[in-house]
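Folding Problem: From Residues to Backbone Shape
Fields: amino acid sequence; protein backbone structure tokens
RECORD BEGINS BELOW THIS LINE
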Amino acid sequence: AKNKNGEYKLTELEQASYQGSKTGGFLASSLTYGIKKVKAKAEIPGQHASIRTPDTQPAFYFYFEDKAAGLGKGGFGSVSNPNQFALVKLDVTKTTRETIIGQYGVTGASSGTDEKSMVTFRSEKLRSGMYKVTPNVALEPGEFCFLASFGAAAGAAAAAQIFDFGVTPDQ
């Protein structure tokens, strides 16, 4: 992000204080015999991320563990590149920021973020274990996060890897 002098400054995104997931729609689902889907959501406490940027197309740098290159600060477990994350616009409630991470119903279950809230991005490998990520479109004002993508085996627990930020163009 640019600072007040117009110079670029790197700010570290720290892992969000993940509140866990909640499931809604059980009553509606039972009343409709499972036809209506039950939605699982990942929640982050608070309405706003502490990291803010006025830049609507910020660049992000991902560093992953690469012992051969001496990059030992990854800490992402089995995640090894940015394409295993989703960039998501969060829905803001009175006390949390949240996103859908799965849906369950009579026709089956699916895990993963809601496509409507996802923002596509491109990643460029700069060197082993280091990538530059930029959104494909300008981000509108609001709350966003990078979260580990959900495979069928990952389940809701994978949502614990969330890195949040906010876009405030008039900042």
Remarks:
- The mean pLDDT is 74.
- The first strand starts at residue 20 and ends at 24.
